[in-house]
């Protein structure tokens, strides 16, 4: 579905992307994360055919995006981080305007607009776009990107700045689009959101790909299961210098990497007169992975 080889992008002396390559062989949600300046937006614009790389090759859905970016337009829906809306237009007039740009028949524009308004819970009450909340405006921008029924969606920070309810609705909508067979390429600062919905994740650092795979594959790369032992003890100094722990919600917490270490720590706490209140186990989060690169 997507095949990228040695994607390099230079802006004068600044190298934004350094030989990035990856393969995605089926539809789904592909999340791209990284610190500010890592090259996320640059890569998204290249995937959308809006920016030409300095070198490398990119094929999406059988289309050579670099050689023929126009061939991608009919299949592509693009949403930049800041989507400019025409504040004096209503939702219907805005979608009709873009439907005509896409070359869609008027009847198809009307039917498709009604379908999208319904699925995105948008009410066209004649309000101007400038009167809508940020969450509603973002939904309108998403509707515009889907109007011509593209198969490939490139969304840059689709939920940035939205309230939790609007953000949750949009991520749920992305799942719906994935289930309909669309390929969705996203970037987001909300790493919990990316972790929750992405089938494949790529981590960029200073223009380089440092990790790529499913969440399970990334967990294997960045660390195994960690056990968190929450306990209370009157005299923590009695645990000695070899047990590492920190304060946590009025008590203390220590960590173990395997069952043997877990048993040793709990025994040590018990011998020192402490009380283990609970033990939690979890894999590293996407945020912890990003902080590790």
TrEMBL record:
Keywords: ATP-binding, Nucleotide-binding, Transport. InterPro entries: AAA+_ATPase, ABC_transporter-like_ATP-bd, ABC_transporter-like_CS, ABC_transporter_ATP-binding, DrrA1/2-like_C, P-loop_NTPase. GO terms for molecular function: ATP binding. It comes from the Archaea. The keyword Cell cycle does not apply. It holds the Pfam family DrrA1-3_C. Residues 2-231 form the ABC transporter domain. The keyword ATP-binding applies. PANTHER family: ABC TRANSPORTER ATP-BINDING PROTEIN (PTHR42711), ABC TRANSPORTER ATP-BINDING PROTEIN NATA (PTHR42711:SF5). Belongs to the ABC transporter superfamily. This is ABC transporter ATP-binding protein. It comes from Methanocalculus taiwanensis.
């Amino acid at each position: 579905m997507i095949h990228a080889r040695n994607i390099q992008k230079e802006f004068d002396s600044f190298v934004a992307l350094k030989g990035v390559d990856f393969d995605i062989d089926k539809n789904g949600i592909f999340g791209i994360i990284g610190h500010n300046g890592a090259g996320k937006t640059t890569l998204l614009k290249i995937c959308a055919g809006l920016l030409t790389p300095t070198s490398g090759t990119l094929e999406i859905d059988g289309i050579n995006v670099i050689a023929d970016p126009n061939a991608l337009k009919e299949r592509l829906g693009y949403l930049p981080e800041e989507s400019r809306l025409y504040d004096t237009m209503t939702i219907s007039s805005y979608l009709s305007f873009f439907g005509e740009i896409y070359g869609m028949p008027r009847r198809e524009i009307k039917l498709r607009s009604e379908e999208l308004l319904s699925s995105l819970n948008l009410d066209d009450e004649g309000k101007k776009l400038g009167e809508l909340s940020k969450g509603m405006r973002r939904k309108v921008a998403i509707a515009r990107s889907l109007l011509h029924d593209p198969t490939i969606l490139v969304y840059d920070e689709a939920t940035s700045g939205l309230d939790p309810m609007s953000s949750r609705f949009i991520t749920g909508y992305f799942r719906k689009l994935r289930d309909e067979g669309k390929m969705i390429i996203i970037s987001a600062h909300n790493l919990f959101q990316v972790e929750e919905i992405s089938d494949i994740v790529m981590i960029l650092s200073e223009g380089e790909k440092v990790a790529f795979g499913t969440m399970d594959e990334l967990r294997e790369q960045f660390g195994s299961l960690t056990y968190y032992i929450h306990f209370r003890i009157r005299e923590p100094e009695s645990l000695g210098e070899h047990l590492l722990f920190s304060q946590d919600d009025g008590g203390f917490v220590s960590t173990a990497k395997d069952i043997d270490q877990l048993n040793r720590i709990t025994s040590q706490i018990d011998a020192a007169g402490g009380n283990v209140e609970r033990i939690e186990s979890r894999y590293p989060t996407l945020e912890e992975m990003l902080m590790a690169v």
